[in-house]
Amino acid sequence: MVVDLLRHLRLFVTVADELHFSRAAERLGMAQPPLSQAIRRLEKELGAELFHRSQRGVRLSAAGTALLEEARQLLAREERLRTLARRAADGGLGTLRAGVPPGTTAAVLSALLAACEEQAPELTVDLHEVATEEQLRLLADGGLDAGLVHHPVDSTALHLGPAISLDLGVVLPRTSPLARLPELRLGELSGHDLVLFPRAHAPGWYDRVLDVCRAEGFVPGRLRHAANPEFLLALVAAGRGIAFDQGPLARKEPRVAWRPLTGRPLTLRVSGAWPVGRAAHPAARRFAELAHGVLTRDHTARPRSEGISAGEDQLPRPWSVVYAP
Predict the structure, then answer these.
(1) Angle 125-126-128 from CA coordinates, rounded to 5°
(2) Residue 15 and residue 66 share a domain
(3) 144: pLDDT strictly greater than 90
(4) Which listed residue, 47, 77, 85, 285, has the most CB atoms within 10 A of its CB?
(5) 3-state SS of 134-156?
(6) Total number of domains constituting the chain
(7) What is the pLDDT of residue 303?
(8) Which domain holds residue 259?
(9) What is the DSSP string of 268-302?
(10) Cα–Cα–Cα angle for 17, 20, 21, rounded to 5 degrees
(11) Can you tell me the distance from the alpha carbon of 55 to that of 57, in angstroms, rounded to the nearest whole number?
(12) For residues 63 and 312, what is the distance between their CA atoms, to the nearest angstrom?
């Protein structure tokens, strides 16, 4: 008969603690005869007597004394192994490779990493700046475990977490007459060039932006593309077009202004995504939920309007000499 070594060692340690077979059996929730038989099988397996039994009681033999500490350590390692396996299965260990869209702010990234650290301190979150279309490919090929994607996307092979809707405003040169208005209608931008991210980054959202613009009466004079946020700001500041953004991007550059759009016609929906199937990373869903919470708090904390007050144009600005109209 093959001995279940770990089980029998657990019985041995209990008897060694009690030095009494009946009390040990009661503690283990079993009858005393089977316990005695199990210890005999262990002794036979190991080729050594572990206890001296007499009418005066039970005491450890030399072999039992030598084995006891090793048995305790082995059982402790077994428990740690089981614990590690459970934590890994729950997504608390290892590395999660996650994609985030270009232009994600430092505040959002810092808050997201902090939330992941709080929820799973021993999980390493390896973030990659990847556009939506490339994220979809990497999620399908196993190059990413989770991502933050811009809708609309083909989700047949993906789980999508809760989505957050982010209202976009317009970024335009601060010297533009339109910058004097507290908010703008899309139709008022007619004739301006439009600076957009390359279509390959997120084809669904790219087409959606242009469809909404046309429906609202804004047909761009020319389309320019900027993959890098700094390049986008530079083009707008130089008067080469306007762009759409949530607001934080414009605050990085004093030569541009951000204004909300009347009626909130451009709403970007973002959600976490991870592959369908048993191979999905166990922490992917949690990442999507944490990202939703971080984006929601960031969007809620941001003021709805960064428009100018009635007398703002009369106030001196530190850049007015260099960037005056």
Answers:
(1) 130
(2) yes
(3) yes
(4) 285
(5) HHHHHHHHCCCCEEEEECCCCCC
(6) 3
(7) 58
(8) 166-268+304-314
(9) EEEEEEEESSTTS-TTHHHHHHHHHHHHHHHHHHS
(10) 105
(11) 5
(12) 89
